[in-house]
Specification:
Order of helices and strands: EEHEHEHEEH
Protein name: Redoxin domain-containing protein
Helix content: 25-40%
Number of helices: 4
Structural class: alpha/beta
Pfam families: AhpC-TSA
Strand content: 15-25%
CATH class: Alpha Beta
InterPro entries: AhpC/TSA, Thioredoxin-like_sf, Thioredoxin_domain, Thioredoxin_ResA/DsbE_sf
Number of strands: 6
CATH architecture: 3-Layer(aba) Sandwich
Keywords: Disulfide bond
GO molecular function, one term: oxidoreductase activity
Length: 149
């Protein structure tokens, strides 16, 4: 997915946890879409940071998308147990058929897609340093949000 493109629909999710969201629900808000997997160690390490981010930036809408990397990762009970274990309170889409993954053209976990309040992609990062690379773009998007509110 290229920068400055519009957020794709969040449709075709196998099951939602912590409430279902769609693209229209996220209109006029900065949004962080976070792809992760239960079989990804780096993903699990980043989950507490995502919770801190949710608390630190209440104007940011965070949506988690669980992206299975193997057949074992499609176990919905195991995904829900991980969501509970890490106390993820924001919406989590379990994307067992890769519908959202494909719409975002995402290949990696963890991966982060940051959209501004117009729904335009402003930053994307993936892998080990993805979370640290997100900090400055996130501050820019939220600062722009504060000046237009």
């Amino acid at each position: 997915m290229r920068l400055r493109t519009e957020m794709p629909a969040l449709s075709g999710i196998t099951e939602w946890v912590n409430g279902e969201v769609n693209k229209n629900d996220l209109a006029s808000k900065p949004v962080l879409v976070h792809f992760w997997s239960i079989s990804c160690g780096m993903c699990k390490e980043s989950l507490p940071e995502i919770n801190k981010m949710r608390e630190a930036y209440p104007d940011l809408q965070i949506v988690g998308i669980h992206m299975p990397r193997s057949e074992k990762d499609t176990n919905i009970v195991a995904v829900k147990e991980t969501i509970a274990k890490y106390e993820l309170q924001h919406a989590q889409g379990i994307d067992n058929e890769h519908n959202v993954v494909d719409a975002f053209q995402n290949e990696f976990v963890p991966a982060f897609y940051l959209f501004d309040r117009e729904g335009v992609l402003r930053h994307r990062s993936a892998g080990e340093k993805a979370l640290s690379m997100l900090k400055k773009p996130l501050e820019r998007v939220l600062q722009a949000e504060a000046t237009t509110s």
